Amino acid sequence: MKLLEKTQLGKLILKNSMIMSAMTRSRADVNGIVGDMTVEYYSQRASAGLIFTEAIRISEEATGSPLTPGIYTNEQIAAWKRVTQAVHEQGGLIVAQLWHTGRAGHSLDRNGKLPLAPSPLSIRGMQHFTSQGLKDYETPQEITIAEINETVRDYAQAARNAIEAGFDGVELHAASGYLPSQFLAESANQRTDGYGGSIPNKVRSYWRSCKH
């Protein structure tokens, strides 16, 4: 079967064409540090040709749901090194999915700070899972130009941190209503500056992150 044959994806040589998709686990501690359970979880699945991790926060500001991992502190990087080493020891490859949730968060799990978003428009008709159960979404704060620039730098640093942690690559989580897709959506982005209005403007922040 071709599914079980080696294949090439960019510079990576996959031992088969089976790819494990990213799935949020919420198994990190309150400091965003993964532990033994995460090491075991990914190493058990190293027979896949390629593993995409659960979404990993690029910064404290990127926090959405509770008990999700980060990759912006030395402790978090060291913890992910244990994961990548375990996967590599089993002959696997693993890519880090980098995450900023934008307005898909809640101040309860952000030290009282409202989430940032392209425009101060809340998510309607849904609730957010928090450390205190389901809560209505709050109206986020509009992200400033300076904060956009900082977020782009956070993506770049998170990518460098992921490589330091031993990952074989990185992926920017740009779907599911998180920050990059919020910039593309009229329901979330009603800006009138260089990051709103036209499609080229709306994609600017995402492509700046990719270039870094």
Automatic annotation (TrEMBL):
InterPro entries the record matches: Aldolase_TIM, OxRdtase_FMN_N, Oye-like
NADH:flavin oxidoreductase/NADH oxidase N-terminal domain segment(s): 7-204
Pfam families hit by this protein: Oxidored_FMN
Domain of life of the source: Bacteria
Name of the molecule in the record: NADH:flavin oxidoreductase/NADH oxidase N-terminal domain-containing protein
Lineage: Bacteria, Pseudomonadati, Bacteroidota, Sphingobacteriia, Sphingobacteriales
